[in-house]
Amino acid sequence: MRQKLARYITIFLCLAVAYGLVLYLYTDNSRPENEALSSSQNKVNQTETVAEVEEGPYDETLTITAGDTLASILNRLGIPINQAHEVIEALSSVYNPKDLKVGQEIYVVYDDQKEGEAYDLKFLRLRADFENDIELVRTGEGFFQATKYKKKLKHTYVAIEGNIKVSLYADALRAGASPKMLYDMIKAFSFDVDFQRDIQPGTTFSLLYDTYKDEESGNERPGELLAAKLVIDNKPYEIYRFQPTGSVPGFYTPLGEAVQKALLKTPIDGARINSGFGNRKHPIKGYTKMHTGVDFGAPKGTPIMAAGDGIVERCNQFGGYGNYICIRHDGSTKTAYAHLSRYAKGIKTGSKVRQNQVIGYVGSTGTATGPHLHFELIQNGKHVNPTKVTQLPKTKLLGKVLQEYKVFKEKVERIKAEATKEGSKEEPPSPSKPKVLDEA
Ligand SMILES: [Zn+2]
User: What is the pLDDT of residues 75-119, one digit of tens each?
Assistant: First the structure.
């Protein structure tokens, strides 16, 4: 028992000595002239060091860790406090130092001070965001000057195709698709495809999207899903992302039908229908008149949502309608909302709105006996009954817009063919690598 204990103590002592030796060697290798920095090595990573150079200038890439501020890391580097303040003040004209994030890198160049123990900062560069860099230089007069400049990003197209063995998400992800693009694709198809039931092994998929790459860091920002296709039981489902002139972007079938179910039937939560569509005696004026919409009774202030994506065509007082909003959804469909107590913040003529976005609040402005929403659906210039339409027609591109769409679709198809071809030139057609095409 005692022998065993002695053996353990010996092993422990040996380990302790070895650990001490390692520590000693490690400390000896770090720059001895800056004790503050070496002692806080765990807080600031030095990915680039000029340890062997005895005389400056020195350069280093510092990595922000939790709790760091620009002032604290400059301080640890050995930059005097008053100089760090000047740096922060100069930077603040183009960048908020509070936006620094954990993991963010800052490249610095600094030199020995002519007199004194500290260093002089000469240059600093950091990534403000994906598209912008910030550079800080010290001018001849000793002032700091900060500039923000846009980085050159490489725009590329990515085409991915494959077979579903497990699920669209799992298999397309393995094929290299971006998760955001898959999310957009599933969302767009979910109006027509039941992902629980319809998708069987053997279903094929393809998608095309664009990305913006910062070649220096290798970071990528996803662009947009441009086209996607599923073939289920030999039946193709194809969609293209298209923005009709003067409208919001959306996904359309090859025939120009919007995939998103166009409109909500009830653009208000928990409301009851007070008065339906059709002829009725006017509650105030007494005579019989065609009621061109549906009245939803709801307490004053109840939020009203946009029934579909579109552009606010009108947002002002409109006679008996009181406070009134009209949204144009496409060439043929509009919805109108009347008697509002007030408009939602930011809603005005020309605003782009999304389905379900709150546009205003129930009220009783104009000719109204009490708070309610008067809701109208106008198709091809005619008022139709929104509650009678069991399946609201899909938004359809018509006329000139449809022609524009067809031209656009052909262009996307060409890009997709090129991206697929380019990809297969570089490597064998394996589903594990995305096919990338540089923008011409
Ligand atoms: Zn009404």
Answer: 988 899 999 999 999 999 999 988 888 888 899 998 888 777 788
How far apart are the CA of 344 and the centre of ligand 1, in A?
21
277 and 257 part of one domain = no
What's the CA-to-centroid distance between 368 and ligand 1, angstroms?
A: 8
Distance, in Å, from the CA atom of 348 to the CA atom of 109, rounded to the nearest integer, reads 50
For residues 52 and 60, give the distance between their C-alpha atoms in angstroms, rounded to a whole number.
13
Q: Is residue 3 part of a domain?
A: no
For ligand 1, the distance from its centroid to the CA atom of residue 107, given in whole angstroms, is 64
Residue in the block written with tokens 């053996």: 7
Question: Does one domain contain both 249 and 277?
Answer: no
Please give the distance, rounded to the nearest whole angstrom, from the Cα atom of residue 272 to the centre of ligand 1: 13
Question: Cα–Cα distance between 386 and 406 in angstroms, integer?
Answer: 30
* Cα distance between residue 344 and residue 340, in whole Å: 10
Residues around ligand 1, an ion, CB closer than 5 A: 295, 374
How many other CB atoms sit within 10 Å of the CB of residue 333? 23
What is the pTM for the complete model shown?
0.50
- For the stretch 241-292, pLDDT in tens is 998 877 778 899 999 988 876 677 678 765 556 666 766 655 555 556 678 8
Residue 375 Cα to ligand 1 middle (Å): 7
Q: How far apart are CA 340 and CA 358, in angstroms?
A: 12
Q: Let me know if residue 99 belongs to a domain.
A: yes
Q: Number of folded domains in the chain?
A: 3
- What is d(CA 73, CA 79) in angstroms, rounded to the nearest whole number? 9
Q: Which helix (H) or strand (E) holds 299?
A: none
Q: How far is the CA of 13 from the centre of ligand 1 (A)?
A: 89
